[in-house]
Structures are given as C-alpha cells and as structure tokens.
Design brief:
single chain, about 325 residues, alpha/beta, 19 strands, about 25% helix, elongated, binds NADP nicotinamide-adenine-dinucleotide phosphate
Length: about 325
C-alpha cells in the first residue's frame, strides 16, 4: 500500500448528498476524493437525479427557482473551491474489509485497489424505474416527471396522468389533485397494489379517475408532452389521452450493486444506516442520500444527510487517529 494511494475520505457519488459530504470534509481539511461516475448511463449520471430535472423550485436559497443541472454545477464548484478532488470515473469494485477500504476504478479484477480510504462515504443515489419508452429521456422534465412534490406545481389546472398502482402512485395522484384539474391513474391491472388506506383515499378523491388494465405505449410531443397513447391489455384497444403531464410512479431502485454482500441492505435494497446517523455496520463506512432513504427522497434531505455523513466520518477519523 503506497502512501499516495491512501486517502482519508473517499466519496462515491456526486448528487446533493455526495457533494455536500465533499464540501464538509474538504472544509475539515480531509482532502476528500469524490468519484462522480461516468455519463455512460442515467444511473451513472454525474450530479445525480437533479441532472434529469428542469426547474427546481423547492430547494431553499433559490426563491426564483434554479435549473437542476445548474444547481448541481453550483454544488460542484463549492466542493472544488474548498479543495475536494473530483474524479469523473466510475468505481468498479470496493473491498470493505478494512479500514482502510479498497476502491477500484477501471479493471475490477486488478490485484491491487486503485485507492485505499480510511473513511468511505457512499452516496450512489437511487433511480426511478422508468417505462422504457422511446421518448422518455427526451421528455423528462418537459411534461414527464418522477416527482410530484418537485413538479406538481407546474401543472396548475391541467389534466395529468400518473402511472402505477402502488402507494407511491396513490400518494403522487392525491398530491397532484392540489394543482391539476383532473388526475388519471393508469394501472396495468384491475386492482391496486397500494395499501387499503391509500386506495380508499384515492377512490374518495373526486378529481382522480382510474384507467384499468392500461399501459402507456407512446409519449406524444417533440419538445414537451402533448399526450399519450394507451393500450388496454384486456380488450386490445388503443386510445389517446390528452394530458400535459405524466408522472411515472412505478418504484425506485437504489444503486447498491457495488456493495452487494458487503453492506447490509433492507429487503427493498436500500442501505441500512444506524438510527440518527449515517454509520453503516462497517467501521469507517457511511451512507447518505437516496441510497439509504426510501422515505423522503428530496434533494434537500439528501444534502442534509451528506452533511451528517461528513461529520460522522470526521469524528470517526479523529477518534481512530486517522484524521
Ligand atoms: P411498488 O409498491 O413496487 O408499486 C409499483 C407499482 O407500479 C405497482 O402497482 C406495479 O404494478 C407498477 N409497475 C411496476 N412496473 C411497471 C411497469 N413497467 N409498467 C407499469 N406499471 C408498473 O412501488 P411504490 O409504490 O414506489 O412503493 C414502494 C414501497 O414504498 C412500498 O412498500 C410502499 O408501501 C412504500 N410506500 C409507502 C408510502 C406511504 O405509506 N405513504 C408511500 C410511498 C411508498 P403491479 O401492481 O401490477 O405489480
């Protein structure tokens, strides 16, 4: 193990959580090294999920709103200003049997890790499951959304649709009735997966209508969503729905493959952190942001938990004599 390869703090992931952890650990003189990932797929998107949004109006400090990628550029420049080193590279393997823990970039089968880190902050985020439609990438942030809390406000008095039959879809649909003139829930079966209480609430809401046994087959519109084509999987019929917004609420997936069999995960795949902290079960490994949050999933909560992880890491480094 050469000294140049041993870092005090390595942060994996560059969304609001990871970059906040980098800002805090940089300002604590811990010279963090942060891996941003590669732009080869949306799951590796440097900057995280906000890179897929347009206007962000609920991030405190931006009363006029801010465009998602611009907000992440600001996070990034704040981290580098204090000396965080950002590498646009993808971590391909970790060995968390330390500390120090091993981090590989490039060939995961290389005998030696590319770096060692006393403290590892995991902030690899999560991704919304998508329908896999051709125009989805183009129209996300332009009528297609995965977050009602973030984007519902933009659809005042409009007819919008929600896809999914689980608790998330019901929650999104109910929330969206605050703004929309009508919300159509599109579900692929004829019964919901959502809990009884959420079903009852949705059924009781006069602004929500349900389309059963229905699948979204096409998104219409070039620069913004202008409607959707539906397929009824019982009758085989095709129909058009003139909605200006489509909220996809078919579940989320945390980006935890890298840590399989090393970090404890909940049944739904999210990393487990100890109560009121960012500490995992492994010494020197901390988790923050959406990779460990299946409840709030907001940029501001992710940033807050990134701050917690940085402080936890800093205290742990100090206590173990590696700070
Ligand atoms: P979920 O329970 O897995 O439900 C996903 C829904 O999307 C299902 O109805 C599923 O249909 C549908 N779906 C999946 N893939 C699809 C596709 N490709 N095309 C069309 N539809 C598709 O996910 P979730 O609603 O995000 O909930 C995740 C967990 O969080 C659950 O345990 C839930 O209870 C919890 N949660 C709780 C609350 C709350 O209590 N307030 C709020 C949100 C989430 P099928 O039913 O046919 O499989």
């Amino acid at each position: 193990m050469t000294d140049t390869k041993v870092r005090k703090v390595v942060v994996i992931g560059s969304g609001p959580a990871g970059l906040t952890a980098a800002i805090y650990t940089a300002r604590a003189n811990l010279s963090p090294l942060l891996f941003e990932g590669l732009p080869s797929s949306t799951s590796d998107q440097p900057g995280g999920q906000l890179m897929l949004t347009t206007d962000v109006e609920n991030y405190p400090g931006f009363p006029q709103g801010v465009v998602g990628p611009e907000l992440m550029a600001q996070f990034r420049s704040q981290a580098t200003r204090f000396g965080a080193e950002l590498l646009t590279d993808k971590v391909t393997r970790v060995d968390l049997s330390g500390p120090p823990h091993g981090i590989w970039i490039g060939n995961p089968n290389a005998a030696e890790p590319s770096f060692y880190a006393w403290a590892v902050i995991v902030s690899t985020g999560a991704q919304s499951l998508m329908l896999g439609l051709e125009a989805e990438d183009r129209l996300i942030g332009h009528g297609v959304s995965t977050c009602a809390t973030c984007d519902g406000f933009f659809f005042k008095d409009q007819h919008i649709a929600v896809v999914g039959g689980g608790d998330s879809a019901m929650e999104e649909a109910i929330f969206l009735t605050r703004f929309a003139s009508k919300v159509t829930v599109i579900h692929r079966r004829d019964e919901l997966r959502a809990s009884k209480i959420m079903q009852d609430r949705a059924f009781a809401n006069e602004r929500i209508e349900f389309l059963w046994n229905s699948e979204v087959r096409q998104l219409n519109g070039n620069t913004k969503l202008e409607g959707i084509r539906l397929h009824n999987n019982v009758t085989g019929e095709t129909s058009e729905l003139n909605v200006t917004g489509l909220f996809i609420a078919i579940g989320h997936q945390p980006n935890t493959d890298l840590f399989a069999d090393q970090l404890p995960r909940k049944e739904n795949g999210y990393l487990i952190t100890k109560s009121d902290s960012s500490c995992t079960d492994i010494e020197g490994v901390f988790a923050c942001g959406d990779v460990q949050d299946d409840v709030y999933r907001q940029a501001v909560t992710a940033a807050g938990s990134g701050c917690m992880a940085a402080i936890d890491a800093e205290r742990w480094l100090e206590a173990t004599g590696h700070g």
